[in-house]
C-alpha cells in the first residue's frame, strides 16, 4: 500500500515537473528550489521539529488515555501559538522575505502573504498526522498522503497554467495548508479531537521531553535547507541561474525515488527502533532494512541510470538534457544516503540529541566546504560530487558510532 502511495506521488510529480519545465524553464526551476528550501526550514520551525517525538510518545502511550490527551492538548496549544507568531512575521515582512529568497529582481511578496495564511493549518495537520502515525494507523497515514498529493496536483495544475512561475510558487505554499481537512477527518475517527484539547491538560513536562527531538529536527531541517540555499546562491554566482536550475531538476528526480525509502522508514522502521529494547533487537531492525529495502533500491537506481535520457525527456524538455551528466554522482550519493538513513533514525528513536547535533553539523560543514571546492573545480557536476562525498563520510561516522548495534 505504501508503494502504491509512492507510485501515485511520483506520477503526480512527473506531471508537475513537466508543467514546470514547459512553463517556467530552468531559471524558474531554480526559484522554485529556493522557495522549497525556505519552506523546509519554516515548516520545521512551525512544528518545532516535534514530529518524530510525537510518533514515539503516542506509540508508547496509545493505551494510556489520560497521558495521550495531555500530549495532544499540550502540543496542539504550543504549535498553534508558534504558527500564529510566524504567520504575522511572514505577512507583515513579505517584501523583505521576497528579496531575501528570490533576489531584488523578483517581487513575489504575495507568495509569503499566502504562506502566512496557510501556515497554521499546515502545522496542525502535520501534528495530527504524527498522532495517527504514532497510534499505528499506517493505512490511514498512507491514505492521507494519497489524498493530499491529489489535492496538490490539482492546485499545481491550475496555478501554473494560470500564473506560470508565480503560480508554481503559490501552489507550493497553498497545497500543504489544504491537508488540514484531510487529516482532521481521519484523526476524528480515532479520537474526538476538539474534546481532547483542553487548556488544563497542558503539561510543560511534555514540552521538555519533546525538546530534544525539537533540537535534532531543527538542526537538520532548518540549518540543512539554509546551507542548501547558500550553496545554490554560490552555484548561481559561479556557473549561472540556469545551471542552478539543472541542479534543482536532478534534486526533484532524486526526491521522487527517495520517497520509497523515507516513507517506509518513518512509517514502519522508526516505531520499530523506538520500541527496540537492546542492541540485539536494534541490530535485527537495521539488517532487515539492509537485506530487504537497500538491495531493491540499488537495483532501481541502476535502471534509472540507464534510462536517464528517457527520464529527462519524459519529465522535462530538451533544454534540460545537461541534467543527464549529473545522474552518476547523484545516484551514487543517494545509495550512500539511504544506507546511512536507517542508522540516523536511531538518533531519534533513542533521543541521542547531542550525538545527532554534532554529527549533523559536521555533515553540513563537510557538504558546504566541499561544494565550494568541487564547484570551482568541476562546475555544476561539483555539487553532486560534493553531496556524494558528504554522504560517504557521514555513513562512515555512523557505522563507527553505532558499531555495537550494527556488527
UniProtKB/TrEMBL annotation:
UniProt entry keywords in alphabetical sequence: Cell membrane, Membrane, Transmembrane, Transmembrane helix
Record keyword Transmembrane helix present: yes
InterPro entries, alphabetized: Poly_Biosynth_Transport, Polysacc_synth, WzxE
Record-given protein name: O-antigen translocase
Coiled-coil residue windows: none
Chain segments annotated as transmembrane: 6-32, 71-94, 106-129, 141-161, 167-188, 209-231, 256-275, 296-321, 327-345, 352-374, 380-402
Pfam family, one: Polysacc_synt
Domain of life per record: Bacteria
Subcellular localization, as worded in the UniProt entry: Cell membrane
Protein's membrane topology: Multi-pass membrane protein
Amino acid at each position: 500500500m505504501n508503494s502504491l502511495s509512492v507510485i501515485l506521488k511520483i506520477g503526480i510529480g512527473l506531471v508537475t515537473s513537466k508543467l514546470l519545465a514547459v512553463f517556467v524553464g530552468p531559471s524558474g526551476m531554480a526559484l522554485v528550489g529556493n522557495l522549497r528550501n525556505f519552506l523546509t526550514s519554516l515548516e520545521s520551525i512551525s512544528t518545532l521539529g516535534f514530529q518524530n517525538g510525537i510518533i514515539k510518545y503516542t506509540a508508547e502511550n496509545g493505551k494510556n488515555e489520560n497521558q495521550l490527551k495531555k500530549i495532544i492538548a499540550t502540543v496542539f496549544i504550543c504549535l498553534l501559538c508558534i504558527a500564529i507568531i510566524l504567520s504575522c512575521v511572514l505577512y507583515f515582512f513579505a517584501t523583505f522575505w521576497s528579496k531575501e529568497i528570490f533576489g531584488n529582481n523578483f517581487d513575489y511578496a504575495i507568495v509569503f502573504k499566502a504562506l502566512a495564511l496557510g501556515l497554521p493549518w499546515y502545522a496542525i495537520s502535520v501534528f495530527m498526522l504524527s498522532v495517527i502515525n504514532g497510534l499505528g494507523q499506517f493505512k490511514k497515514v498512507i491514505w492521507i498522503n494519497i489524498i493530499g498529493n491529489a489535492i496538490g496536483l490539482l492546485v499545481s495544475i491550475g496555478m501554473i497554467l494560470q500564473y506560470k512561475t508565480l503560480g508554481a510558487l503559490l501552489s507550493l505554499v497553498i497545497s500543504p495548508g489544504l491537508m488540514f481537512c484531510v487529516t482532521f477527518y481521519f484523526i476524528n475517527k480515532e479520537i474526538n479531537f476538539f474534546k481532547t484539547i483542553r487548556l488544563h491538560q497542558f503539561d510543560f513536562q511534555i514540552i521538555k521531553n519533546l525538546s530534544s527531538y525539537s533540537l535534532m529536527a531543527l538542526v537538520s531541517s532548518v540549518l540543512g535547507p539554509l546551507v542548501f540555499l547558500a550553496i545554490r546562491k554560490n552555484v548561481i554566482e559561479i556557473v549561472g541561474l540556469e545551471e542552478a536550475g539543472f541542479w534543482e531538476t536532478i534534486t526533484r528526480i532524486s526526491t521522487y525515488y527517495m520517497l520509497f525509502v523515507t516513507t517506509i522508514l518513518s512509517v514502519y522502521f522508526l516505531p520499530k527502533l523506538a520500541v527496540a529494547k537492546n542492541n540485539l533487537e536494534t541490530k535485527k531492525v537495521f539488517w532487515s532494512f539492509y537485506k530487504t529495502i537497500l538491495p531493491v533500491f540499488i537495483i532501481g537506481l541502476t535502471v534509472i541510470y540507464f534510462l536517464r535520457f528517457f527520464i529527462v525527456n519524459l519529465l522535462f524538455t530538451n533544454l534540460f538534457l545537461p541534467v543527464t551528466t549529473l545522474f552518476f554522482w547523484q545516484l551514487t550519493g543517494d545509495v550512500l544516503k539511504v544506507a546511512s538513513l536507517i542508522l540516523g533514525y536511531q538518533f531519534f528513536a533513542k533521543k541521542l540529541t547531542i550525538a545527532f547535533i554534532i554529527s549533523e553539523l559536521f555533515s553540513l560543514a563537510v557538504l558546504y566546504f566541499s561544494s565550494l571546492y568541487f564547484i570551482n573545480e568541476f562546475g555544476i557536476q561539483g555539487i553532486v560530487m560534493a553531496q556524494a562525498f558528504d554522504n560517504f563520510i557521514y555513513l562512515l561516522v555512523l557505522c563507527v558510532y553505532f558499531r555495537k548495534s550494527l556488527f
